[in-house]
Design a protein that fits this description.
The complex is a heterodimer of chains A (435) and B (295). In chain A, strands 2-1-3 form a three-stranded antiparallel sheet. In chain A, 69% of the residues lie in helices and 5% in strands. The longest helix of chain A has 49 residues. By secondary structure, chain A is mainly alpha-helical. In chain A, α2 crosses α19, α15 runs antiparallel to α16 and α18 runs antiparallel to α19. Chain B is α/β, with parallel strands linked by helices. Chain B is built from eleven helices and eleven strands. In chain B, the strands form two sheets. Chain B has a seven-stranded mixed sheet, sandwiched between helices. Chain B has a four-stranded antiparallel sheet with strand order 3-2-5-6, with helices on one face. In chain B, α5 packs across α7. Chain B starts with 7 loop residues before the first helix and ends in a 5-residue tail after the last helix. Classes of the chains: A mainly alpha (435), B alpha/beta (295).
């Protein structure tokens, strides 16, 4: 009985204290959830970046070796150095092959065949052709020393020597492995690992040693240009009209609901729309940044409109009143006050939309931008592919050397994104500095 | 009668004398009984004249049948408890209520004989003639110079740079701000203190040379010193402008205005000379309000 009365004597502060420990534990737990999710995110990010960077950096480099090549007019089949057709059609692979046989002192059909597989014959041939195009006169019948690319399989193997199991070794027979060893042991004039300039200056190729990122990069650039030029003004005009001018009735409600819903439509649907409207109905050229840009404009517009409307809504009504109060017309209020104040928010929305567009591949599949495009597009109406599609194609390619190219391309894509975001942050800061 | 002891009857009698007027004043008139404004709502030389003004927010009626004249170069103060419709009425005078979709104004509102709610009338020149200063200082996020120059610029009042400079300087001088800001005209207007910002807003309003200035509680966000400065300014401005000011401070109304209009629940109860309103109002409601019985 006395115990009961003691229990009852527990006053408020004791009860509070009793609960306090429980509350603190809950607080700690709550924080721990947050920290755990951040750690998980960071771990994934670090894992992703180490993986991509370790693989991707390989893609930026390539093994070259200097080689003496005798540009013998007879072997080349050139009789007249002023004849451009002859220069273009000359048998460059023959001189390269000859040089390769000499380099490895290969004799006999079997050995010659093995030796040919170590050097990128075609790529070297193109390189010499390029040199000959400009000054055939002085080069003919001389011996030049140029850096030749090793074969992609050799490069693949060389990059992995020392790794567990030495992947790539199975591509070669005894003789070839001996030659590779011999090249590696050479003090001077041997193998050299250099930055693969061709990766940045050429388009896609079926040979991994010649495949470059430029065509996809330019394709992405043109695509974004078209998307930005269309979606930014259209999005802002739509947002301004809906927010400032449109009467509030069931039609504008309907439009608003539709815009919000469009933002959630799977992107491949937009691709189908583009296929049906722009390609089939209007007959625009297939695989071009123009059509891709139109499709991505449709896709990014809801994002831009929604964020622009939010930015316009956030402009303080007192500023509008002030301008109306001294007799500004609606357009003057909008252009002089509302849009400048809402611009940072509008830009943020646009950049988010464009970043989304840059990484998009599904809608572009439908309009034929997944094609093999070796040529660098020269404008928005040339066939092109884009970085995400290029990455996908390279990863899909089983040939040696393509997967590391894909990783390198991912790095380029991420760099592109970071640059875009940096630009957005800079632009926003600049605009916001106007008080 | 003994001097020391008060008779109960005497006390009762005195009490009756003391209590009677109090009881009378406490008997607040039912608002539906107010049919006509007492005092002198009309003026001979009216700058603006409003007749039978009703204002609706959707279904709800905010202003009931208001009749009022505002004389030339007069300062008229509008007082009343919160939600009595004085700000709503003020905003009708330059059609600022147009920006509210559900707001509907009926009746006749004239500026020098011209109906300002005429559908053919353009609000842009109207607002150039009837300027407005708001409750919260709301300078544009631009420089002091651009704040003042904005009005003249959009109305095309000055084509040459020198003319514009002159307008800016005159306006700032009239608003009593010139000496304080003349060295930093190109710094942001939002960097000024609250009182300076409000004077900047007044300068911005008078830069377009309006005929009437509407002030919606211009001092409610300011400290007493800044308030005193603005009140002085209103006094000076009344030489050239017609001013209608809404205020919550009865002292302010008493200090700055010539006439005072008392609004109650959307009706205009009394309009009289300011002195009369604050010393001997005609209407019970007005007296109850100014003596602090409510509001």
């Amino acid at each position: 009985m006395t115990d009961r009365t003691d229990d009852n004597k527990l006053n408020t502060i004791d009860l509070v204290n009793k609960n306090l420990a429980k509350r603190f534990r809950a607080e700690k737990r709550f924080q721990a959830y947050g920290i755990a999710s951040i750690c998980f995110g960071l771990f994934c990010l670090v894992f992703l970046f180490t993986d991509i960077i370790s693989k991707g950096t390989r893609g930026f480099f390539y093994h070259y070796m200097p080689m003496e090549i005798n540009l013998d007019a007879d072997t080349l089949g050139i009789t007249d150095t002023s004849d451009t057709d002859q220069i273009l059609a000359a048998n460059y692979t023959a001189v390269v092959k000859k040089a390769v046989y000499e380099e490895f002192q290969a004799s006999g059909r079997k050995q010659k065949k093995d030796a040919r597989k170590l050097i990128a014959i075609d790529a070297t041939g193109y390189k010499i052709q390029g040199l000959m195009k400009t000054n055939a006169e002085s080069l003919i019948n001389t011996t030049i020393t140029i850096d030749v690319l090793v074969d992609d399989k050799v490069d693949f193997y060389l990059k992995r020597i020392g790794n567990y199991g030495e992947p790539g070794k199975e591509y070669f027979n005894e003789q070839q492995l001996a030659w590779i060893e011999q090249l590696m042991d050479k003090e001077s004039g041997g193998l050299e690992k250099k930055l693969n300039v061709a990766f940045f200056t050429s388009g896609d190729s079926a040979q991994s040693e010649e495949a470059g990122i430029l065509s996809a990069f330019m394709g992405s650039l043109y695509l974004l240009l078209v998307t930005f030029c269309l979606s930014f003004p259209i999005g802002i005009a739509a947002a301004v009209y809906l927010e400032e001018y449109a009467p509030k009735n069931k039609w504008t409600d309907l439009i608003e609901i539709n815009i919000n819903n469009l933002a959630a439509v799977p992107s491949i649907i937009f691709g189908l729309l583009g296929l049906a409207i722009f390609l089939s109905f209007f007959g625009f050229p297939r695989s071009t940044p123009l059509v891709g840009g139109l499709v991505l404009t449709l896709m990014t517009l809801p994002t831009i409109i929604i964020s622009s409307r939010a930015a316009i809504k956030a402009v303080p009504p007192s500023i509008r009143e002030a301008a109306y109060g001294i007799g500004a017309s609606k357009m003057q209020v909008t252009i002089h006050h509302v849009i400048p104040l809402a611009m940072p928010g509008m830009l943020t929305g646009t950049i988010i939309g464009l970043a989304q567009a840059l990484g998009e591949s599904a809608p572009l599949l439908m309009i034929g931008m997944a094609a093999f495009i070796p040529d660098v597009p020269g404008g928005i109406t040339d066939p092109a592919t884009v970085l995400p599609m290029q990455i996908f194609q390279w990863f899909r390619n089983a040939d040696a050397g393509f997967s590391e190219k894909a990783s390198a391309a991912i790095m380029i894509l991420i760099m592109f994104l970071i640059m875009m975001n940096a630009l957005a942050v800079w632009a926003r800061k600049r605009l916001e500095r106007r008080w | 009668m003994n001097d020391d002891v008060l008779d109960v009857a005497d006390v009762r009698a005195m009490n009756e004398v003391v209590q009677q007027p109090v009881v009378a004043k406490n008997k607040i008139t039912d608002i539906s009984e107010i049919t006509e404004t007492v005092g002198i709502p009309f003026a001979d030389n009216a700058k603006m004249s409003m007749r039978n003004v009703d204002v609706f927010y959707g279904e709800k009626q905010a202003i009931f049948d208001v009749n009022l004249d505002i004389g030339v170069n007069e300062v008229i103060a509008m007082i009343g408890p919160s939600g009595c419709g004085k700000s709503t009425f003020l905003r009708c005078l330059n059609r600022m209520n147009d920006t509210i979709d559900i707001c509907k104004v009926t009746g006749e509102l004239n500026l020098e004989g011209q109906n300002i709610y005429d559908p053919k009338l353009d609000v842009v020149p109207l607002r150039a003639r009837v300027g407005m200063v708001f409750q919260k200082p709301n300078p544009f996020p631009k420089s002091i110079y651009d704040n003042v120059a904005y009005g003249p610029r959009i109305h095309g009042l000055a084509t040459r740079r020198a003319d514009m400079d002159e307008i800016v300087e005159t306006s700032l001088r009239r608003a009593g701000l010139w000496e304080e800001v003349k060295d930093r005209l190109h710094q942001p207007g939002t960097g000024l203190s609250g009182g300076q910002q409000q004077r900047l807003c007044i300068a911005r309003t008078i830069a377009v040379s309006p005929e009437v200035i509407l002030m919606d509680e211009p001092c409610s966000a300011l400290d007493p010193i800044a308030t005193a400065r603005i009140e002085e300014l209103i006094d000076e401005l009344s030489e050239n402008f017609t001013i209608a000011i809404v205020t919550h401070s009865m002292q302010q109304a008493a200090r700055v205005s010539h006439r005072t209009a008392y609004f109650h629940l959307g009706k205009l109860v009394e309009v009289n000379e300011t002195e009369k309103v604050f010393t001997n109002p005609d209407h019970d409601l007005t007296e109850s309000y100014i003596t602090g019985r409510f509001g």
